[in-house]
Amino acid sequence: MWAALLPVGRDAWTGGYHRFAWTPPELDCRAWFTDEARRRGLRIEHDPNGNLFAWWDAGSGPAVLTGSHLDSVPGGGAFDGPLGVVSALAAIDRLRAAGFTPRRPIGVAVFAEEEGARFGVACLGSRLLTGAIDPSRARGLRDGDGRTFGEVIAEHGLDPAAIGPDEGLLGRIGCFVELHVEQGRALREPVGVASAIIPHGRWRLDFTGEGNHAGTTLLADRRDPMLPFAHTVLAARRSAAGNDSVATVGKVTVVPGGVNAIPSSVTAWLDARGPTDDAVRRTVEEIAEAARRAAAEHGVTVDLAEESYTEIVGFDHALRDRLALVVGGQARSAEPAPVLPTGAGHDAGVLSARVPTAMLFVRNPTGVSHAPAEHAETGDCLAGVTALAAVLKDLTGG
Ligand code: HGY
Ligand code: MN
Ligand code: MN
Ligand code: MN
């Protein structure tokens, strides 16, 4: 099943994946999912926010939802997102092959724009579903070509006026369990359980200077936004280190971008994460202060805007501990599965504000993610399916 997805959106040269929301590769992945779900007799549902669900309408009562996302970061790995979607379908196959019929419905979700690689806000689909982002703000989010989220989803049969929290759908979900490739290298077992997602956010920095000729403009007359931008990149590393946090500056747009023209503006995105909200807030404030100081020094203005922020997510403890026992039992270790925090954001982190949520991680021997070296061994992926099937069975009355 997995093999069909592997070539979709993959750059043959770098091996990285480019599957941005509502672009042909991601649409092909959605079509693949819809086809696989229909072949299993699952009922397809598109919510108004661009999320896609496949339901095994067995039993009654609130569903156990699993699944993940199919979009990627630019040049991403093969597993981040798709592993959770493919494992969900494979787990359903396992349950059916064992003759199991759930007493509660089981759903598989494909959440939209989880990476935020196209419109800038991570977990856009799950944030809209749960009311974690203002629909009018979401409608106006623009991609790199200046296209708005509202315009793009309208081209794909959705009504931009209908986006927003869906209490009816949320009311049908009893809990959400997302399986995901580990993003780091802590696991010594094939499968682990998430304890928390550390606080993390994204900020947009706009440096505005004065475009001019690279050869004829004296240094003293320059208002070059690249300089405060460069200071800010170094300040981000310094501040993060000083606050036991991490910070990354990326997705940089230099306008106009020629080598023989001093740019008029530089836009950069800051991704900051840390062990506590205070640590992240302090880190960002120090970076903002350094950016303001450097901008003033070079006659440049700078605006910093918070695009998204997720406070620490402590997953549902009862669900977490139950999964650790179930998964441990599957591993025949008789020990509960390892429980660990993650520095990566997930739809599960967003859903956890509204429904009991937990995550399973499949061991990643390289520890790398958001890059082509992201990996999970076949044996560990199969252990992930075994674990997810056991969890779905346990949670739906098996
Ligand atoms: O960015 C993240 O942490 C996640 O992988 N989307
Ligand atoms: Mn990711
Ligand atoms: Mn992911
Ligand atoms: Mn995620």
What can you tell me about this protein's structure?
This protein is α/β, with parallel strands linked by helices. The protein has 2 domains: 2-198 and 312-395, Zn peptidases (Aminopeptidase); 200-310, Alpha-Beta Plaits (2-Layer Sandwich), CATH 3.30.70. 33% of the residues lie in helices and 23% in strands. It has 11 helices and 15 strands. The strands form 3 sheets. Strands 1, 2, 3, 4, 5, 6, 13, 14 and 15 form a 9-stranded mixed sheet that branches. It is globular, with a radius of gyration of 22 Å. The chain starts with 23 loop residues before the first helix and ends with a helix. The model has no long low-confidence stretch (mean pLDDT 96). The chain binds (2S)-amino(hydroxy)ethanoic acid and manganese (II) ion (3 copies). The site of one manganese (II) ion (MN) has 4 residues, from loops.
Give the CA-CA distance, first to last residue.
Answer: 26 Å
What would you call the structural class? alpha/beta
Q: What is the radius of gyration?
A: 22 Å
Stretches where pLDDT is under 50 for at least 5 consecutive residues are none
Helix and strand pattern: HEEEHEHHHHEEEEHEEEHEEHEHEH
Q: What fraction of residues sit in β-strands?
A: 15-25%
Under CATH at level 1, the class of the largest domain stands as Alpha Beta
Just name the CATH architecture of the largest domain: 3-Layer(aba) Sandwich
Per DSSP, the total helix count is 11
CATH superfamily of the largest domain: Zn peptidases
CATH fold-level label of the largest domain: Aminopeptidase
* Strand elements, count: 15
Helix content: 25-40%
* Silhouette: globular
What is the makeup of the main sheet?
9 strands, mixed
Tally of domains: 2
Rounded mean pLDDT score: 96
The distinct ligands, each listed once, are: (2S)-amino(hydroxy)ethanoic acid, manganese (II) ion
InterPro entries: Amidase_Cbmase (IPR010158), Bact_exopeptidase_dim_dom (IPR036264), Peptidase_M20 (IPR002933)
Binding site for Zn(2+) 2: 80, 115, 370
Binding site for allantoate: 202, 260, 273
Keywords: Hydrolase, Metal-binding, Zinc
